[in-house]
Amino acid sequence: MASNRSLCPIQEAWNSAALRRPGFLYIPARIWWNLRHRGVRYTLRATLNPRIAAIRKSLGYGKPLHISTPACTGAVLDLLPGELVEVKPFENILGTLDSSGRHRGLVFAPEMRKYCGRRFRVFKRLELMFDEQTREQRRIHNTVLLEGVFCGGDGIGCDRSCFLYWREAWLRRVKE
After folding, report:
1. What pLDDT, in 10s, does the model give residues 88-117?
2. Cβ atoms of 7 and 15 closer than 8 Å
3. Nearest-CA neighbor of 174 among 114, 84, 93, 60?
4. Where are the domains of the chain?
């Protein structure tokens, strides 16, 4: 006996596609479902927040402001792993920071102050970093990690012991 199913799966998909809701009705249907199942407050937030974010983005809100960093002499040392460096005195470092305590976007943390005037070996050059707030990987220039210099989490209660990032403008090369 012959089967009534003579259509191939692709033809069946084309035939059933006409039964789906048209695209222009999707948003009103979703809003109606959210109103019935999740309430007015959730629906307003879910409906308006993406549209407000798109408007703000098109108007240029949320872009980082350009804050100029004071000019630094000897900011590029091209340090290599194993070289001996000395962290400059805090007063010299203070001259390289802008009004928010940063040098070209990288913060000089209060915990880094205790290392001023001391000598360390360069552990590694830093080329890429992961920004946990924006969840993106960023390229970073003229920055190194020093051997044995870790963040102790003082004042913030963190126990991760991350390396501290050092701009070359805050360091001076020392002959052995």
Report:
1. 999 999 988 888 888 888 889 888 999 999
2. yes
3. 84
4. 9-59, 84-173
